[in-house]
Structures are given as structure tokens and as C-alpha cells.
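Hi everyone, sorry if this is the wrong subforum. Our group has a chain we'd like a structural model of before ordering constructs, and none of us has done structure prediction before. Sequence below.
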Amino acid sequence: MKGLLRHPLRVLVRLLWFTGELAIAAVNFARVCGLSKNCPSRERALWLQHCSRRILRIFKTQITASGTIPAKGLLVSNHLSYVDILIISSITPAIFVAKREVSGWPVFGPLARMGGTLFVDRGRRTLVGKTTDEIQSALDQGALVVLFPEGTSSNGQTVLPFKSSLLEPATRQTHALFAGLVQYQIDDGDVGEEVCYWQDITLISHVINLLSKKTIRASVRFTQLREGSTDRKELARQLHSEILRLKEASAF
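Answer:
Right subforum, don't worry. Here is the predicted structure as C-alpha cells:
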């Protein structure tokens, strides 16, 4: 809560703005999808993109995207924060894969559910196959699916080893495969402590502190893999190496 104490007016104004944007997002979702549980993935992804762009304005976010921006296929990215979803979604409409716990988060849980996020329970292996089938179905429908195979977020100092369980659809080589690297910069704080969401801190406290930041600069570098392995564990290593390469080459 240090940010609230340092910039109480800034946080209050942005918090009210944030609340208003959430109300607008709910109204827009009702207009696009109504009460239908079968709202098309494409419509949900476009809704989330519009919502993400509006929310990122509250955080005064500046975004730089480079490389081949994917429109469909599977995008594998490093994972630093819930902000990653807003950043990537603002650049290109996408369906995200997230851990089951995200569904119950305040604010971002409802946004994720309405945005068509596919939730995976990694603790129950019998259900991982169901999520894999859902990923394959979304890919077959022409969606861009975003996967964070680290399985959790980190402070960004390194890229955690990739879990391969959800990469099975990519081994079939029937859809485009991309790797992405997300990075952040702030002038009035520590990215690893205040933008990355990985420590034992409540989501609401983290968001309030982030609202105190003057601006957030985000960079996303994309690259397309022309030849991926047909073995998912080898593919996981290949994608991990590619994102490390992007990180080493980045001057951000």
C-alpha cells in the first residue's frame, strides 16, 4: 500500500475510473453476448481486447510490439503478471489459458470468464486432457490461443522451465506456432516487486499499488517458429530456448 500513501489522489481517481470501466465492460459484454453461454470465442476475444485497451489507459500504459504479431494459432509466452493478459489482448484478440484459481479472483476472474479463458486444473491430470481438447477446438475455429507454460508468474529475472502437458495440439503442426516475450519498465519503482505478480500479496493490494505508478512501459516481442518438434517435451524445451533468445537479444 506504499503507493496509496505516496499518491492518494492519483490512486483514488484511477480507482474510480477503474470501477467505471468495469461497469462499461459489463454493459458491452451484455450487448455483444447477451445471456448466451455459447457466445462465440471470436466475439469474446474482441470484447476482451476492447476492455483491455480501456483498462490499460488507466495505468497510463505505453506498449511496444515487434516481430510478427499473431492473429491465429498458438502463442506461447513468458508470464510475469495478470497485466500480461491485458497487454497481449490489447495487441491482438486472443483466448487465454489460465490456472483454475484465476477464475475465482476478484475483478480479473469475471473478466477472464467473460473473455472466454480456458481454465486448467493442473492438480487433476484427468482434466488436463479436457483443456487440451478445448485448446485444439479453439485453434480449429481460427482463434489465437495464448498459453503460459511456466505454469506461474515470476519476477522476470529468468524464464522458468516450461510444462509440456498443454502443448500437445502444437505437436500436430496443423496451426501456426509463435513465441512471445513480455517485459516491463517503470521509472518510480521496481518492476520485479511492483508490476510482476508473484509474491505472497493480495491481488487488490497489488492493483492499488500499481495504480499509483506514473506510467508503465510494456514491450512484447513475437517470433514465429517455422519448424516445431512433434514431441511435446522437446517442443517445450525448444520454445523455452526461443524465449530466452528473445530475452537475451532485448535491450528493453
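For your construct planning: The first strand starts at residue 61 and ends at 67. The chain has ten helices and seven strands.
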